[in-house]
UniProtKB/TrEMBL annotation:
Keyword Nucleotidyltransferase: no
Chief place of localization: cytoplasm
Name by which UniProt lists this protein: Thioredoxin H2
Function as written in the Swiss-Prot or TrEMBL entry: Participates in various redox reactions through the reversible oxidation of the active center dithiol to a disulfide. The H form is known to activate a number of cytosolic enzymes.
Family: Belongs to the thioredoxin family. Plant H-type subfamily.
Assigned GO CC terms: cytoplasm
Name of the coding gene: LOC107759604
Subcellular location, record wording: Cytoplasm
Keywords: Cytoplasm, Disulfide bond, Electron transport, Redox-active center, Transport
Biological source species: Nicotiana tabacum (Common tobacco)
Keyword NADP: no
Length: 140
C-alpha cells in the first residue's frame, strides 16, 4: 500500500522556488503631490529655512508631455535624494500655478530658501537634469 518516495526536500522556501533569498530594493518615488493649496503652503514654509533644492513639477492630467516626463521625474527623485520633488496639478491648484507664472505645461520651477532660482518650460529632460545638478550643489 505504501509507496516509497525518495525526494530531497529543500530546506528553505527560496531554494524550493529557485529564488534569491533577498528581495531586490525597489525604487521608491520621492515625489510629493499636493492637492490642497493650504498643505502646499505649509510644506513650502517649512522648506524656506533649509538649503534644500525644491523642484516643482507643474503638470496637468490632460497634458501628453507631462505624462512623458512623469517617469523621468520619478527617476530623478530616486537619484537625487537630497532634492525635494513636488507635483502640482495646475487645474487643482490654479492659484499656485498663477503665483509662479506658469503658462505652459510641463513647467519645472526650482526653488531654494523660498526663492525661485531657475525654471524649465517644456519636456526638456536634459535641461532639467543640468539645472538640478547645478542648483543642488549651490549654497545660498
Amino acid at each position: 500500500m505504501g509507496a516509497n518516495y525518495s525526494t530531497t526536500i529543500p530546506t528553505t522556501w527560496p531554494e524550493a522556488n529557485n529564488m534569491p533569498t533577498t528581495m531586490p530594493q525597489l525604487k521608491r518615488s520621492q515625489v510629493i503631490a499636493f492637492h490642497s493649496s493650504t498643505k502646499w503652503k505649509l510644506h513650502f514654509d517649512a522648506l524656506k529655512d533649509t538649503n534644500k533644492l525644491v523642484v516643482i513639477d507643474f503638470t496637468a492630467t490632460w497634458c501628453g508631455p507631462c505624462k512623458n516626463m512623469e517617469p523621468v521625474i520619478n527617476d530623478f527623485a530616486a537619484k537625487y535624494t537630497d532634492v525635494e520633488f513636488v507635483k502640482i496639478d495646475v487645474d487643482e491648484l490654479d492659484k499656485v500655478a498663477e503665483e509662479y507664472g506658469v503658462q505652459a505645461m510641463p513647467t519645472f520651477v526650482l526653488i531654494k530658501k523660498g526663492k525661485v532660482v531657475d525654471k524649465v518650460v517644456g519636456a526638456d529632460k536634459d535641461g532639467l537634469k543640468k539645472k538640478i545638478e547645478k542648483h543642488r550643489a549651490i549654497s545660498i
